Structures are given as structure tokens and as C-alpha cells.
């Protein structure tokens, strides 16, 4: 995926206009999916009807109000932010590592978050009651967020020497750190009782079921800030595709791009994982699909990844909450079940393009 | 931990309301969360008011025809609201807490039934459900039946037979024995049945090493029934005996492997007296 080569191919294959018009369509898609998502749910509460009653000042049944404003709306916004956050993080990581398989997991973010969650689920009861009472049921998301940042900070510290971050060191040290985190997680899991084990399993499958205004207000701004800043990385990531030395020669401040990319990813992924658990696949498949369509230019790739990621997660969430209603299937199962085969199909039908 | 955190949260919330289950005699659309709560509702003869249940409520068979709102610790708020309950009766530990908070916000009465694994706790559990349903007098008959079973049990246990050592095997994952230590339902029912848990010094359900199995030296091995027929039993017993450390225990030598239905054995509901009695008879070879 070289963006520029000596023969000047890039001008002939410039797909920037495609990226621009795709952004428009993806925005329309997201709006449509959001409307659909707000209108669908196990309870069959009709969103248009309730909204109409609300605007015209009619009495709304308490349950209808709760379903729409306390369940579906925070869940819709959470799904949009988490989907966009995961997809953009994936795109940024793939750009930074110049590897199509890269994901935020390479920063230790996922492993750190899951260690935080595991520790909170299994050992949280040992905390002083005052802290427990203050943290309440937000202990798990808080611990997951702290864990993701801690792991990222350690890895960044190891890979950075004399103000230069080595991506290769980061990749390899990341494997070592992930193994260490897995060992500690295993130790804690061994202590867990069977109920905690079930909690852990459900956490790792991911869900937007716990979406609430409180969580959204806590994690939303973090993800939103990362999303808003991310397009500024586009030029830098495009430059990095040439290799670090070449990027520096064309005037990219490589170290600054790296640091920003890592911070943005840790913020978006850490906060997303903290409020929704482990939702796989979105971060890999969404940027890939878009690269197949519009090429590797980050100027539109990052924005489009956010838009498509949000739509994909909203659709997956709709399936998750209606397919076995009144019960709910963890969303991580859906993203993998629908996304895996779909991704494979896209890959196989574009095989020539990938080889070429 | 989530349990403890949610208990702390539930405690704070319930202190604001009241410590005792409030009566809801008018509730006609009851959602039961937790297998034992569902069983108690049937035992009270109040099943006509039951409209939905959670995944753990698999007894009696009729209950399985009701809509299933999912696993009790991973409930979906809109899913629960969609069955339009006017009362939710739940075992301790239902969640996630966000869902419970939304349900309370929606104004649906949510009563948590205290858990219990001894005679007093079980009686309190049945009475709490009856109280919440506004039919306290209906508790008399299942409580009396429970007491009668437990009395029969203590008579049998008091017989002076030397106490036998029982090992509860939860699963045989990859040839490793996952056994019940202290603080488990299995430990409670074994003690209730007048036997001794052969696995001491272990908390919760843990995989045992071969040496630990040898040291535990159980007289009897207790397992949950998976399939309904005898060939399943034979196959599972064979898998168990294929583990050398198990084959060397007194239980294996005497062929003392007991299998009982999981919810019946570990559910701690109205049938627990009977279950403990059955277990006692199975361990000690009939009354």
C-alpha cells in the first residue's frame, strides 16, 4: 500500500474525489441507521409516535419515555461513538505501523483494559468500602480505562529513547507486555468464583447494554475529542507510508505524529472498551473496506472510517438487541459472526487488487 | 466483586426504600429472575401471575414456555420492559446494575429476594416471595413441606452413621477435575445432607491436581446430570474413571458415583429439603 511511487502512478489513480463523495453517502447512511436504531427495540415502542407526542406536549407513558430517552438514546450515542472510535483507532494504528493487520491491541490498550476490568470484577470487593461506595458500579469501566492507559504509557516509555519512539520496539515489547498482562490476568482469574467468571466472559464479549447517560457523559467527551483531532493526523500518516526517513525529508514531524497517533488511539479505544467491553473486528475491517474502495489516502480514510464504524456498530447492536428478544446477544458475537464472512468475501473478490 | 459492588449499590437503594419486601397484591404481570424464585412462585400456586422468566429458571417444565429475558446477570433493560412486567422478583445478584437502575427509573417495582442455604434462609426466601406477591398465607404449605423434609433429614442424619466424604465434580474439562470447595452451593448441600465435603481448604470451584484428589479421598463422587438417559451417565462415569487419580479413590472402588439434576441439587428453592434427603439416601444407601 504505497501511496506514492517514482513512476507517478498516484496522479493517475487519485481517488480523493471518491473519498469525498463517499463521506457524504456514509454520513447519509449513518443518519438513516441512527433513525432505524432509535425506532427499533424489543419493546416495540414507536419512536416517531413518542417524539410527536413529546413535541406536541402530549402526555407520554413513563415506560415509553424511559425506553426512548434512557435506554435507546444513550445507547445510540454510545454505539456511534464506540463504533467510530474503534474504527478510527484501527485506521490510525494501521497507518502508524504501516501494517494492514495493526490494531489498538498493539499498544497494549486492549490487554491493559481487560486486566483492569478483570481486577475490578474479581478483586474490587477487597477495596475499602468508602472507595467502593464512591465508585459504585462504575468501578469496572474506570479500572478498564486506567488499565488501558497504564499499559500504553509503559509501552510508550519502553519504546521511546532520547525523544524518539521506535515503532519496531513498540511492536515487540508490546508482545512481551501483553504476555505479562495475560499472566497477571490469569492469576486473578484463578481466584475468581463462578459468578465472576461469567461476568468476565460477558465483559469480554462486549455489549452496549450498560449504556447510560452517566457513562456517556464520562467517556463520550474523551472519544469525541480523539475523533475530532484525528483528521489532523492524515498528512502525517500519509507521509509515514513512505517510511520514517522519507517522511522526515518531506517535512513531517515524525515524532509528533507518532505521539499524537498513540494518544488518540489510547483515548478512543480505552474509553470505548471501558464502556462497552471487548468488541472485536470493527477496527480492522472498516478501514480495510474503505481502503479497497477509496485507497489508502488518510485524508478521507480517517473520517470515513469513523462514519462507517459508527453505522456498522449501530447495525450490529440492533441485531444484538432484537434477534433473541427479550434477551440480548453480546454484540462482540454479532460483529464477528457477520463481519468475518463479509470481510472474507470482500478480500476474495478483490484478490487481484491485493496481490497487485 | 461486581456482586459486592452491586450489592452495595442495591443496599444503598433499598435503604432508601425499605428493608423488607413490600407487598404487591395487585401485580398481575410478574417477572421472575433466578431459578429458585420461579420455583417458589410455582410452589406458592401463584404461577398464573408469572409472565416471563430468566434463563436460569428451568423448573418446572411449564416455566420454560414463558418468554426468556436472558441470563440473570446480563439482562437487557428494553428486553425486560418489553414483556411489560408490573413486578420483578429477583434473586440476589441480578444485573448489570445499569439495567436495574433503568428498570427502577421506569417505575417497575423490583424486589430482591435474599439468598439462603440453610433451613432458616430457605424459609425466609419462600416467605419473602409470598410477602412480595401479597399472599403471605400461601407460604405456609411450602414452608411446612420444606420443614417436614428437613426434619426427616435431621432424623436420618442423627442416626449415628459415620460421616462420609463427598467430592462434588462440576466438570471434567480436558481431563481435569473441577471440584467444589468451600463457599459453594455444592458444599452447602453436601453438609445439609449430613456428609462432609472431601475437598477442604479450597475456595469456590477450582481445578484439582491429581494429588489433591488422592488426598481428598472421597467416599462418594457427586456430579450434575447432563443428559436424561443412562448411556450419558455411563459415558460420563467412564470419563471420570479414566483419570487415574480418580480411579484410585474409595468412591471409584465402590462405584459410588451419584448424579443429580443441577437445579434440583444446587438451586436452593422449595425442593431443597427433598433434594438433600435424596442426596442423603444416595450417599448412605437409602433410609
From TrEMBL, chain A:
It is found in: Cell membrane. Keywords: Cell membrane, Membrane, Transmembrane, Transmembrane helix, Transport. InterPro entries: ABC_BtuC-like, ABC_transptr_permease_BtuC. GO terms for molecular function: transmembrane transporter activity. SUPFAM superfamilies: ABC transporter involved in vitamin B12 uptake, BtuC (SSF81345). It is a multi-pass membrane protein. The chain crosses the membrane at residues 21-42, 76-93, 105-127, 139-159, 171-192, 212-234, 261-286, 298-316, 328-348. GO terms for biological process: siderophore-iron import into cell. Its main location: membrane. GO terms for cellular component: plasma membrane. Pfam families: FecCD. PANTHER family: ABC TRANSPORTER PERMEASE PROTEIN MJ0876-RELATED, FERRIC ENTEROBACTIN TRANSPORT SYSTEM PERMEASE PROTEIN. Belongs to the binding-protein-dependent transport system permease family. FecCD subfamily. This is Iron ABC transporter permease. It comes from Paracoccus alkanivorans.
Automatic annotation (TrEMBL), chain B:
Residues 1-21 form the signal peptide. Keywords: Signal. The keyword Transmembrane does not apply. The keyword Signal applies. InterPro entries: ABC_Transporter_SBP, ABC_transptr_periplasmic_BD. Residues 29-287 form the Fe/B12 periplasmic-binding domain. PROSITE patterns: FE_B12_PBP. It comes from the Bacteria. PANTHER family: HEMIN-BINDING PERIPLASMIC PROTEIN HMUT (PTHR30535:SF4), VITAMIN B12-BINDING PROTEIN (PTHR30535). This is Hemin ABC transporter substrate-binding protein. It comes from Paracoccus alkanivorans. The lineage of its organism: Bacteria, Pseudomonadati, Pseudomonadota, Alphaproteobacteria, Rhodobacterales.
Amino acid at each position: 500500500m504505497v501511496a506514492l511511487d517514482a513512476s507517478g502512478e498516484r496522479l493517475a489513480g487519485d481517488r480523493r474525489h471518491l473519498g469525498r463523495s463517499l463521506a457524504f453517502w456514509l454520513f447519509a447512511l449513518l443518519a438513516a441507521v441512527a433513525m432505524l436504531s432509535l425506532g427499533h427495540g424489543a419493546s416495540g415502542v414507536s419512536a416517531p409516535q413518542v417524539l410527536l407526542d413529546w413535541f406536541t406536549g402530549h402526555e407520554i407513558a413513563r415506560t415509553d419515555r424511559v425506553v426512548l430517552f434512557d435506554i435507546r438514546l444513550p445507547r445510540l450515542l454510545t454505539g456511534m461513538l464506540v463504533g467510530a472510535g474503534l474504527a478510527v483507532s484501527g485506521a490510525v494504528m494501521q497507518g502508524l505501523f504501516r501494517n494492514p493487520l495493526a490494531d489498538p491491541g498493539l499498544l497494549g490498550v486492549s490487554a491493559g483494559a481487560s486486566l483492569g476490568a478483570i481486577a475490578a470484577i474479581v478483586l474490587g470487593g477487597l477495596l475499602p468500602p468508602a472507595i467502593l461506595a464512591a465508585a459504585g458500579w462504575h468501578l469496572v469501566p474506570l479500572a478498564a480505562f486506567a488499565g488501558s492507559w497504564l499499559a500504553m504509557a509503559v509501552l510508550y516509555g519502553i519504546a521511546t529513547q532520547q525523544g524518539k519512539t521506535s515503532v519496531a520496539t513498540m511492536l515487540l515489547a508490546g508482545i512481551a507486555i501483553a504476555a505479562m498482562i495475560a499472566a497477571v490476568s490469569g492469576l486473578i482469574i484463578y481466584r475468581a468464583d463462578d459468578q465472576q467468571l461469567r461476568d468476565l466472559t460477558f465483559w469480554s464479549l462486549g455489549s452496549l447494554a450498560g449504556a447510560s447517560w452517566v457513562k456517556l457523559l464520562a467517556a463520550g467527551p474523551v472519544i469525541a475529542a480523539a475523533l475530532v483531532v484525528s483528521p489532523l493526523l492524515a498528512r502525517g500518516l500519509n507521509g509515514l507510508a513512505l517510511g520514517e526517513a522519507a517522511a522526515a525529508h518531506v517535512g513531517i514531524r515524525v515524532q509528533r505524529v507518532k505521539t499524537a497517533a498513540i494518544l488518540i488511539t489510547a483515548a478512543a479505544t480505552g474509553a470505548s472498551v471501558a464502556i462497552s467491553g471487548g468488541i472485536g473486528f470493527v477496527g480492522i475491517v472498516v478501514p480495510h473496506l474503505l481502503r479497497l474502495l477509496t485507497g489508502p489516502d488518510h485524508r478521507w480514510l480517517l473520517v470515513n472510517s469513523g462514519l462507517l464504524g459508527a453505522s456498522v456498530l449501530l447495525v450490529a447492536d440492533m441485531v444484538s438487541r432484537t434477534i433473541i428478544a427479550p434477551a440480548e446477544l453480546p454484540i462482540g458475537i454479532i460483529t464477528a459472526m457477520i463481519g468475518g464472512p463479509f470481510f472474507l468475501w470482500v478480500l476474495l473478490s478483490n484478490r487481484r487488487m491485493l496481490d497487485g | 466483586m461486581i456482586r459486592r459492588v452491586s450489592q452495595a449499590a442495591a443496599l444503598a437503594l433499598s435503604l432508601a426504600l425499605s428493608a423488607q419486601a413490600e407487598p404487591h397484591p395487585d401485580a398481575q404481570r410478574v417477572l421472575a429472575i433466578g431459578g429458585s424464585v420461579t420455583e417458589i412462585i410455582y410452589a406458592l400456586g401463584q404461577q398464573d401471575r408469572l409472565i416471563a422468566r430468566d434463563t436460569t429458571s428451568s423448573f418446572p417444565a411449564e416455566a420454560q414456555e414463558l418468554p426468556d429475558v436472558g441470563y440473570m446477570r446480563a439482562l437487557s433493560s428494553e428486553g425486560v420492559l418489553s414483556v411489560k412486567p408490573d413486578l420483578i422478583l429477583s434473586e440476589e445478584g441480578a444485573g448489570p446494575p445499569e439495567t436495574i437502575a433503568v428498570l427502577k427509573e421506569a417505575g417497575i417495582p423490583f424486589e430482591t429476594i435474599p439468598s439462603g442455604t440453610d433451613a432458616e434462609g430457605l424459609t425466609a426466601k419462600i416467605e419473602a416471595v409470598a410477602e412480595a406477591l401479597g399472599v403471605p398465607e400461601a407460604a405456609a404449605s411450602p414452608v411446612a413441606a420444606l420443614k417436614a423434609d428437613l426434619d426427616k433429614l435431621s432424623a436420618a442424619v442423627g442416626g449415628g452413621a459415620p460421616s462420609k466424604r463427598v467430592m462434588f465434580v462440576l466438570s471434567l474439562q480436558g481431563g481435569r477435575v473441577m471440584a467444589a470447595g468451600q463457599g459453594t452451593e455444592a458444599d452447602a448441600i453436601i453438609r445439609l445432607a449430613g456428609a462432609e465435603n472431601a475437598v477442604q481448604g479450597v475456595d469456590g470451584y477450582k481445578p484439582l491436581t491429581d494429588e489433591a484428589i488422592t488426598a481428598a479421598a472421597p467416599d462418594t463422587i457427586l456430579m450434575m446430570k447432563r443428559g436424561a438417559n443412562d448411556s450419558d451417565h455411563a459415558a460420563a462415569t467412564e470419563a471420570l474413571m479414566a483419570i487415574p487419580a480418580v480411579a484410585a479413590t474409595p468412591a471409584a472402588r465402590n462405584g459410588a458415583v451419584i448424579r443429580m439434576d443441577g437445579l434440583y441439587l444446587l438451586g436452593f428453592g422449595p425442593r431443597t429439603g427433598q433434594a438433600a434427603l435424596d442426596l442423603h439416601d444416595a450417599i448412605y444407601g437409602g433410609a
